[in-house]
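Exercise: predict the fold of this chain.
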Amino acid sequence: MSLTRVNASAATLTKNRTEDSIIPTSGMCVTCVDGCIGMCEIGKSAYRGHEVIYPQPFGVITTAGEKAYPVDYSHFNIMGTAVGAHGIEEDSDKAIFPNVNLEVKFGHDQGIKFRYPWIIPGIGSTNIAKNNWEGLAIGTALAGTGLTIGENVVGMDVESKIENGRAVDTVDLKRRVKLFTDHQVDGWGAIIVQANVEDTRLGVQEYAINELGVQVVELKWGQGAKDIGGEVKITNLEKAQLLYKRGYVVLPNPTDPNVIEAFKRGAFKEFERHSRVGMVTEESFAARVEELRKAGAKYVFLKTGAYRPADLARAVMFSSKYKIDLLTVDGAGGGTGMSPWRMMNEWGIPPVELHAMLYDYCKQLDDKKKHIPAIAVAGGFTFEDQIFKGLAMGAPYVKLVGMARAPIAAAMVGKTIGRTIEENQVPVYIERFGNTKDEIFVTASELRKQLGDAEFEKIPTGALGLYTYYERLAQGLRQLMAGTRKFGLKYITRDDICALTHEAAERSGIQFVMDIDKAEAQEILKKA
């Protein structure tokens, strides 16, 4: 089985001419014909060059790698049981799935509280994030979970005011924070402001703390989709020049007269804006954490990606030593707005292996009685079964699962449905449920009752889409947990899942399906 689509993908808008006859190693057509217009990735690269590195079309898509890893979370199954109950009385009238408690509290003082055990990791300056932020922020706030404002938001905002190299006022960041805080319910959930190299130089987190009242900030080492800095495409020359002036790497150089002339005559249509890669040292990490706490940050998080095992060990050790409140570890292949397509498929440690290492490293420090921060795992999670498996794989250290592409998809669908309602063009597939948001969104009546008519009418349908998707995940997760007789998240253990193959068992440390409960089963049989 080929693990990668080598030379053609919907992500790069490429395809093979001989789709049924492809060389597995190269991805080329078996017969490459002189005269072909170049539909494959090689052919498209012959005339568009570096543009074909990235998924397309930029700004309206999220993307994730399509490589099939040897082991993934589908290679594990959830173990149910017919006896007992953890976290609730052993009573069939009480041990019902609606009574499963999904609330999680974490942080050095247990002061961060989420209604559900998941979080949206950094969604930054890409158009797909900005254009759907209203739904993401309001939906997350109403649901009572976490949302992270990703890198480069201030630097990309042409209306940001920067004096002496530091941010003193913003439009976009202020809007993003306010959309969440205005809809936050009884302190549930959190808005987090992330920073990369450029953000740190601009003083974005200090500004967010002091001017916007943000309590939670996150240091960013990377993500699962790539091992270089954040990227976006710019179609406006003046904006490209502004970003270059603000210190970003912009390609080609928008201040070069020859480049300006080429852009104006249409030789190319997009500039690339790149962020720098960080240079991690323990000294700089410790100093930055201390700076943020002195600036007023109540909680400090760290997000890292699918780097080599030594870097994961550094992340765990630093987070332990400097009392980080949440460490997020993102496995390879995860979704993003713009990452090099080949890198997204061929770089980094896949989620199962990375999360298994993460558990092992945390266990080693825990055995030494060291501080273990709350842990979040990310990398392609979308539904309740995967969420359960992620929590079990890293139990008892993993408290949250990070998801980005799936929540964005829910928000986008909700937004699109709202537009069709306004235009009186609800598709037949949707119209069978009704023609209004009260009829279409199954959570609408509950929210209308909770918020009141006036407030409910202000809620955008993108937020309804995200909120309703979360409601589905919550009910599904409660059902799975009730089946394992675990009525609170803290009761989930590693033996709540089993490995379906020896390879999955070997890589993860999770017991093979034929070995789990073996000793207990024998003891039961001896009583016959």
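Check your answer against the key: The longest strand covers residues 118-123.
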